[in-house]
Amino acid sequence: MKQLNVIITGANSGIGKAAAIRFAKEGHTVIMACRNRGKSEPVRAEIENLSGNNRVHLEEMDMSSIASIRSFCESYRSKYKELDILIHNAAYFNHGAPYKQSVDGIEITFATNVIGPFLMTMLLRDLLSESDDARVLHAGSNIIKHFLNPKKEIDLEQLQNEPEDPRSHSVYINYRNSKMALLMLTFKMAEEFKEDGINIYSLQINGATMSKDALMKVKPHWRIIARVQNLFFRPPEFTANLYYEICTSDRFRELSGVHLNHKLEVMQPAKTGAGIITDIKQGLGADVYPAYALNTGMVNKIWGVCSELTKSAAETSQ
Ligand SMILES: NC(=O)c1ccc[n+]([C@@H]2O[C@H](COP(=O)([O-])OP(=O)(O)OC[C@H]3O[C@@H](n4cnc5c(N)ncnc54)[C@H](OP(=O)(O)O)[C@@H]3O)[C@@H](O)[C@H]2O)c1
């Protein structure tokens, strides 16, 4: 098999680390894009030892910072020259944390989970287009099921404005919205990048056991919930293997702009107004995603916000 260049964001723990191990074991060149060198270097060394692959690299990048993403992409270009696979795995989900903005003045959940991946893919688009089998994967979440309720929609009110009443802020809701926005970007980017031969995928993750480190990021009452969930969730390696399949298997080569479930089936938009039995089945199953993901007005709004914020923030950071 051809040796591929793979960037995995947030590859120092959980699913990202497990994916880095899998790609390294298969002999690919792995670039771990992580924000904390001190914490991530021992992980890089561990992956190198485990895999026997000395092409496991660590590059610093803070996914919530436009300047950091720009600097990563610039240095990547000159150092590695080629890119085949880009996995947007890093995410902010510090449930229970107070409202916080990124260095660019963007609400931190949206900055990390939506704006960052958008900008990074855009900046690496030309390199990806030179690969004969370029694939970009977005780590999605079943939290978007909330949008099966037609009353739910993405509210961008807090995107750049701290709410007056702190109780009206919730990382959980922003995380839910960010993962829906990321799915919308999957569909839109697939269209935009068709001519470049770049395939864009989204994987709906139903849960993966959280590491001790990840558990410590959420507030104590969320930690209790997460610990209970950990008893039922699959290990990170399960999802990491799905990442590997989506990014390397021939069966996905001709597919783009798809949302895949844990069985690697292409999910379909949910039926609306089909009755309570259908609603329950859709809510419990993993066959459909909320039709809201195809809401053209909101898709274009998210695309516009991403373009605008990355443009203006890039200008001010120069
Ligand atoms: N675990 C689940 O149950 C579950 C369910 C649905 C979806 N997912 C999705 O799966 C993906 C991986 O999650 P996980 O469970 O493996 O969590 P995890 O172990 O906490 O990993 C998250 C990674 O993201 C990194 N990260 C966060 N903010 C960053 C930033 N600003 N810049 C660079 N890296 C940053 C973290 O780095 P630090 O170590 O520096 O913080 C960490 O490496 C996420 O996209 C998550 O939304 C997970």
- Residue share in helix: 40-55%
The small molecules bound here are:
NADP nicotinamide-adenine-dinucleotide phosphate
Strand order, sheet with most strands: 3-2-1-4-5-6-7
CATH architecture: 3-Layer(aba) Sandwich
| Shape field | globular
Q: What is the CATH third-level topology name? A: Rossmann fold
Element pattern in H and E: EHEHEHEHEHEHHHEEHEH
- The count of DSSP E runs of length 2 or more, i.e. the number of strands, is 9
Structural class: alpha/beta
Mean pLDDT: 94
Describe the structure.
The chain is of the alpha/beta class and 318 residues long. It has one domain: Rossmann fold, CATH 3.40.50.720. Helices cover 46% and strands 14% of the residues. The strands form two sheets. It has a seven-stranded parallel beta sheet with strand order 3-2-1-4-5-6-7, with helices on both faces. Strands 8-9 form a two-stranded parallel ribbon. Helix 1 (14-25) packs parallel to helix 2 (37-51). The longest helix has 22 residues, at 108-129. The model is unreliable at 313-318 (pLDDT under 50). Bound molecules: NADP nicotinamide-adenine-dinucleotide phosphate (NAP). NADP nicotinamide-adenine-dinucleotide phosphate (NAP) is lined by residues 9-10, 12-16, 34-36, 39, 62-64, 89-93, 112, 139, 141, 205, 207-208, 210-211, 214, 233, 236.
Outline of this structure?
This protein is an alpha/beta fold and 318 residues long. It has helices at 14-25, 37-51, 66-80, 108-129, 171-192, 212-217, 220-230, 236-248, 276-284, 296-317, and strands at residues 5-9, 29-34, 56-60, 85-88, 134-141, 198-205, 258-260, 268-269, 288-289.
